[in-house]
Amino acid sequence: MNPSFYVVAVDSPLKEALTYLPPEDGRVFERGQSVRVPLGSRKAYGVVMRQTQEAPPAVKLKAILEREDERPTIPEPYMDWLEWLAQYYVFPAGMIMETVFPPLGKESTRTSRKSPVVKDYETRSEPPPLTEEQRNVLRQLKEAPDFNVHLLFGVTGSGKTEVYMHLLEEVLARGKQGLVLVPEISLTPQLIDRFSKRFPGQVAVLHSHLTAREKTTQWWNMVDGKRKILIGARSALFCPLPDLDLIVLDEEHEPSYKQDEQLKYHARDAAIMLAKRLNIPIVLGSATPSLESWNNVQTGKYQLHEMTQRVNARAMPAIEVVDLRELHRQRKDTPSSLPFWLSDRLHEELVQIFDKKEQAALFLNRRGVAQTAQCHACGYVAECPNCSVSLTVHATSHLVCHYCDYSERLTEMCPDCKESPLEPLGLGTERVEKDMATLFPDIRIARADRDEVQSRDQLEKLVEDVETRNIDLLVGTQMIAKGLDFPHLNLVGLVLADVGFHWPDFRASERSFQLLTQVSGRSGRQSAGKVVIQTYDPEHASIRHTLGADFQGFAKAELEERSGLFYPPFWRMAMLRIQSNSKERGERTADLLVQRAHVLQRSFAAYGDGIHVLGPAEAPLFKLRNKFRYQVMLKCDSPARLNAFCRQLLADDSWIETGTKVQVDIDPFQML
Ligand code: ADP
Ligand code: ZN
Question: What is the number of the ligand 1 atom nearest to the C-alpha of 154?
Answer without folding.
Answer: 3
